[in-house]
Batch of 2 targets.
Target 1
Amino acid sequence: MPIRQLSPELVNQIAAGEVIERPANVVKELVENALDAGANRIEVHSEGGGSQLLRITDDGAGITRDDLSLALAAHATSKIASIDDLESVGTMGFRGEALASIASVSMLRLRSRRHDADEAWVIEAEGGPAGEPQPASGPPGTSLEVRSLFFNVPARRKFLKTDPTEQARISEIVQTIAMANPGCAFTLRLGDRTTLDLPAVDDPRSRVVALLGRELSDELLEVDFEAAGATIWGLAGTPQIAGPTARRQRVFLNGRPIRDKAIQHALREAYRGLVVPGRHPTVVLFIELDPRLVDVNVSPTKSEVRFRDGGAIHQAVRHALKGTLRKHDLVPTLDLDRSSGGPSSSPSGAAPSYGGGGGGGSSSRGPQREFGSGLPSPGFEYAAMKSELEQPVAPAQTLMPAIRKDLRILQVHAKYLLVEDAEGVLVIDQHALHERVMFEQLKARIGEGALERQQLLVPDVVEVDEVAIESLETLSEMVAKIGFDARPIGPRAISLSAVPSFLLSRNVEPGDFLVEALAFGSEKGRVDDAEALLSEVLDMMACKAAVKAGDRLTQHELEALLAQRESIERATNCPHGRPTSLRIPITELDRRFGRSS
Ligand code: ADP
Ligand code: MG
């Protein structure tokens, strides 16, 4: 083929491939444009999964007659003028390619009227250059109609999923954007059904709650964190409303939805040990950061970002969430009415809910509509934030009501303890609580160095398989840290010359433990996250050393266990996230016995 200059239409169509893969992408671009134009009300209407018709109407600033054709031209934007502007761009769009791309793959009709203009103007394009603007009628603002999306790119059309799937994606994107923009009213009409009708509110909490579901309101704890100018505001779900997917996890950076591995990881870390594996906590976070410290220009859809210092953000998110979770009483209530259903069923099959979480009032702070306002102080520096974060954390301050100490502790069925606190009756799983207590102690000790070890006069020889020998080598650091002095002697034997004192004191056979830990550590992918692996292995230790169901405890032992409950963090859940205690509220008992006032 001879070399040819591509036509502008073809260039736009190719560009469209990057940003516009499906109707939901069109919705995202057009809704963001409306927000950039200062809209207070945005209506989205979709027919046939969006490929038949998309109409986005706003009451924003509007476009002048003369700018209409420019709006559809490639690389035409009103939002940046020079490369320097990119540094601090405060609008959602700035590449000036969305409208041109969409116009190149659809039948587009753009009607707009400036607030100060007497009439509206309309311009149309059918997969190519736009015609001349024509006068039209209509209220101030802009309405964009996109019909027959991809009519001239059959290959792309083939990639579209069924209408309901595309609709779900449209709905998802509208909800996401609406979450970050509570000051703007949103409606979404899919076919002839209005599926979303959100009034403008001035309180970010109520918008998030409206979208997550009002029934979750009591289970959403407020996150409000500030470190050297960066702010994190949001709502963190109690462990109880963790869901089977990560759908209810959303992170926004300066109003923009982002996906970021490091932040996702921080989130998991914050909830580690509070939710069982396979469950995903509900978390909505709005991070506000000086835009100069992030590069959002990494991907055309701008959902991936590059932080100047990802580590600091990771730490800040973790601190923010942990701080919130620590401040609340997370003891689940044994809700006797709710035999099934509820926000989510608990792993044990019962359906406890978290009562008294006290989501608290709403904050005046929240996601910022206008990026220019409320930005962190220009002097913000990661270094400052880091040093602030590295300050020792204040000792655990839980709102967990204290257990009455002057009463006899009842051990029932040799596995549960019955005690009373100000709110009601607590049922405690002795194994789960003891496991958490020992886990926290082990973690504290390992934080100061390696676990204490006991030298063996005669080394112990343990028979193992080849995998264990290999895993001993890769995990040697961790093995030493938890208190073992272990060396391979031959292809199938390990010699132990020192073992963790902790295991001996709790009558756990150290050789067996090491073999199990090595097998666990050699499972796929575990070696990659050393911190997580260490944590898991410490938990194995704690679990093996903890009292079991069936162990009768003396009154003295029971008292010691309960005393420890109040001195550690996350006493409400065992390290695997299962609850250690359930509360039957005294009000519930009163009601059941007909004593309610
Ligand atoms: P970008 O948003 O990156 O600037 P677009 O192609 O999305 O590029 O839009 C091009 C221009 O058209 C914008 O910069 C803006 O000036 C104008 N525009 C688009 N949509 C609207 C709207 N809903 N209201 C007012 N102006 C708009
Ligand atoms: Mg745009």
Note: Residues 339-397 have pLDDT under 50 and may be disordered.
Target 2
Amino acid sequence: MSFVIAIDGPAAAGKGTLARKLAEHFGLPHLDTGLTYRATAKALLDAGKPLDDEAIAAQTAASIDLGNLDRAVLSAHDIGEAASKVAAMPSVRVALVAAQRRFASSARGAVLDGRDIGTVVCPDAPVKLYVTADAQVRAKRRYDEILARGEVADFDRILEDVRRRDARDMGRKDSPLRPADDAHLLDTSKMGIEAAFRAACAYAEKRPDL
Ligand code: C5P
């Protein structure tokens, strides 16, 4: 396996920011795999199709273009909720995991972040990170982001959403969110993103197989 950095963790733990910083630092392409589940959900919603028909959802997943994932559009809260529903369907995962593996097999290597990168998508990745933080801390980050955009937010609702999403992602049968046995754990509850980045770099650079 080439230089693949696999990053997993629950929503709002900081893994996306960390993945982007690591990709820039090591000069690698980056794929936020959550966007592939979000794009599938959005395509279904836009076409007025049901979110619970696995055959239709899998067909939609197979048509997702990795080169055309618009983070600004896909980051909407409702799309995240819908994404975690379609992500529980095995044949949706088969289609998206195939596309994610093609991305990961680029000669230079790659950084991928999601929920099952170290366990399912790239189990042979030489560097695996599991980024987590207390649900309260993650909810507060989301809350502050919304306020910073000048919008109104309800902290208790956000905390409830974070917990519901965790339960769905960790409790599903296919590829539940969990750290790979050989993942390096980074708890960002009391650590800023810069400190997490330094810790991740130090870990990645001392891998003997690089
Ligand atoms: O990370 P993000 O919030 O964008 O992911 C949206 C949803 O997509 C997650 O709640 C999860 O259910 C699903 N997902 C997944 N496997 C991945 C990435 C995301 O199941 N590798």
Note: The chain has two domains: 1-29+109-205, 33-105.
